[in-house]
Amino acid sequence: MEDRLPRKLAAVLYADVAGYSRLTGDDEDATHKTLNKYLDLFSQTIESHHGQVMHYAGDAILARFDAAVDALTCASVVQQQLAERNADLPEGSRLHFRIGLNLGDVIEDRGEIYGDGVNIAARLESLASPGGICVSDAVRSAVQKKLDLSYEKLGDQSLKNIEEPVRAYQVLIDTRPSTIPGSTDEVPSSSSLEFPLPDRPSIAILPFKSLGSDPGQDYLADGIRFGIQATLVQLPEMFLVNAVALNAYRGKDVTALTVGKELGVQYVLEGTLQQAGDRIRATVQLTEVATKQAIWAEQYERILDDIFKLQDEITWEVITSLNVKFQKSERARIWFAKNY
């Protein structure tokens, strides 16, 4: 095809700040000054790892690398550096970046890069935890064991405006398998968390239990859970325990009250999933730890094509049950950002 634009294989890094609107609302000048320093750090780290910054957009940064191993090394290093800098700031002033990484074809034109290779990296960024990294299977396969990193499977993710599902992984940064929550029989306690839980509504979303024998149902259950987590974490009025850390409870015979007390959270969301053909049944319950009561529970029966609608319905019920207040602009961003 003569009209086809030339493409090249590149590792793409996309990052932005979690909860940036809230931070600027609290102290616009201080937040912007911190952001400038952090973006400078990003730029220097990208260049030192053989990468190139392609674009800045507000609190977001886009970069390309020739090698996936350089991109992932850069992402790991910069998150460690940012964590060290955040430690010197008050909790409410810390800037936590999410990073998405993908390896794929891109179009490079006039100093910019375009295409699905870029779009997938941007979508993966929204799945990462604040201060975390989410990578595609292409990145993980390219890096293999070249880096001393561990990964947590997120399963096949159906990303908006991307035709085929993308298998995604959370990167467990600078940890050894023996110290990764969930890699041993040890269950994390609230004293092991890096930061004390704030006074806003705090919630832990346990791994949803798949009641079938098909491993594919585990991916589906995790996809629903991470979809809910990715939406709720955008609300500045809520605090969520890191989803990867909660995998320590997968398959364990624990109650919501036990988990809530161990982690020091106010609420625990748990659920089960069954699949029969193209139909799924999800049962979800939200428990208030202090009162030992289930404040909301529901059973849903849907077809697989309604999986995103199911995630939105559960998320909305959680927000309503906790009486979380947020601005109309915040609500619009959450519910309509997925459609652009």
Mean pLDDT: 80
- In sequence order, what are the helices and strands, one letter per element? EHHEEHEEHEHEEEEHEHEEEHH
Helix content: 25-40%
The share of residues in extended strands comes to 25-35%
Number of strands: 14
What class, by secondary structure content? Answer: alpha/beta
- Profile the largest sheet: 8 strands, mixed
- How many helices does DSSP assign? 9
Cα-based radius of gyration, to the nearest Å: 20 Å
Anisotropy-based shape: globular
Summed up:
34% of the residues lie in helices and 29% in strands. The chain is of the alpha/beta class and 340 residues long.
Explain what this protein looks like in three dimensions.
- By secondary structure, this protein is of the alpha/beta class.
- The chain is 34% helix and 29% strand.
- The chain contains nine helices and 14 strands.
- The strands form two sheets. Strands 1, 2, 3, 4, 5, 6, 7 and 8 form an eight-stranded mixed beta sheet that branches.
- The chain is globular.
- The model is unreliable at 175-198 and 325-340 (pLDDT under 50).
Secondary structure elements and their pairing?
Elements: E1 8-17, H1 20-26, H2 28-48, E2 51-57, E3 60-65, H3 68-86, E4 97-109, E5 112-114, H4 116-127, E6 133-136, H5 137-143, E7 150-157, E8 166-172, E9 202-205, E10 209-210, H6 215-232, E11 239-240, H7 256-263, E12 267-276, E13 279-288, E14 293-303, H8 307-322, H9 328-336
Parallel strand pairs: 4-6, 9-11, 9-12, 10-12
Antiparallel strand pairs: 1-3, 1-4, 2-3, 4-5, 6-8, 7-8, 12-13, 13-14
Helix pairs in contact: 1-2, 2-3, 6-8
